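Let us practice reading a record.
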Amino acid sequence: DKNGNWAVIQQGMCPARKTARRYHWTSLSLKSFVIDPHEIIGDVRLPIVLNMASSESINAQKVSLDLVKDGIESLKKDYSKLMRLAKRLAPLDKFLTNTPDNISLPGELRIKLIPMRLNWEALNKAYEIQPSSYEELVEIKGLGPGTIRALALIAELIYDAKVCWKDPIRYTFAHGGKDGVPYQVNVKRMEEVAEFLESIIEDLSIGKREKLEMLNRLSRLVPRDASKSV
């Protein structure tokens, strides 16, 4: 606006879960882009999320910055330590039974969180730049999520810097509009929408096999007997 206030709404897609996470940023309460910057985050709450933008991850941010500024030769040694550590990780079922506050232990970290390759060229570029803050670090081209995650894991598992594993989501929206007001799931309305979509699918000029596939996908989203179980 004319006073310089602004708001940004971003949306990130997760193809694996077929969901979207919406991020709201406003200048009214923003103090840092890398320390609790979001006004609102809307999505389905996940049990474990690596949140390097949390105030609880400040020490891990500092260690990540120091790792890059020390140069890639030193970082390669730490990365090798991390990979050796991965071979001693606990089974996945044990990992999933722990709370986010307890998963900083090496034996309780899922191996999939550790990237198998890093962008060493980008890390060397970051070393040459010598960023003065974590915000400057994450802005360097080529330092993607995998590299940032590797730095965070090295900071936590090797240098004992606390990392936040709590999902920062604040709102979860159910079936309904986009007016920003969450409300309880209306099963009857969901079934009405499902029936409407089903009628559209039935009228489509496509093959029987394609129709069955679409109807099966719809039934998985909204079981037809959902209202009977409520």
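A brief commentary: The first strand starts at residue 7 and ends at 14.
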